[in-house]
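I would like you to sit down with the pair of lines that follows and say whether tokens and residues agree.
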Amino acid sequence: MARRGSYAKGIAKREEILSAALEVIARNGYGRASVRELADAVGLSQAGLLHYFASKEELFAEILRKRDEVDRETLDAAHADERLSMMDGFVEVMRHNADVPGLVQLYARLSAEATEADHAARPFFTERFRLFRELSVESIREGQQDGTIRADLDAERIASLMLAAADGLQTQWLMDPTIDMAEHIEYLLTLLKPPAAA
């Protein structure tokens, strides 16, 4: 019974670490958020913090996983009275990302590093990309069936292009914050619509 209690406490501490890390990175940026600062935010030593994660890379991947979870909960709460489409949710997340540059920077850096086959964050990004494409394909095909998206488009290719556009826009935005990422994604989505009837 004691082991179960210790396990629950460990899970709770991980969640506390991840929530605090989200705030620190969003506020200070990824480049200035050291493991020491993250540890200080939850009253642990660096070794104590890393006790809860296999590596620094796993810690940062879990921070991004937590960010996705918080974003989903925020969107669900904001649209509790309506069913938000996947496409509308996509635009809203891109709009929200402009408020958390540190997390966008972490995502951009870690996704590039995760191209290494043995990188600790690779499973996170592999699953995230798979899920995004799967949900996008489903949403595109629904739109094709109801006539709001062109029927001649390859849903799987469009889903991959949407993901590429989002990630590329985030990189451009980190270099030029005047770029409106959400507006660009909205424009991309209008290109998927059938031409207006004559």
The domain at 55-190 is CATH 1.10.357.10 (Tetracycline Repressor; domain 2). The mean pLDDT is 89. Residues 2-28 form the longest helix (27 residues).
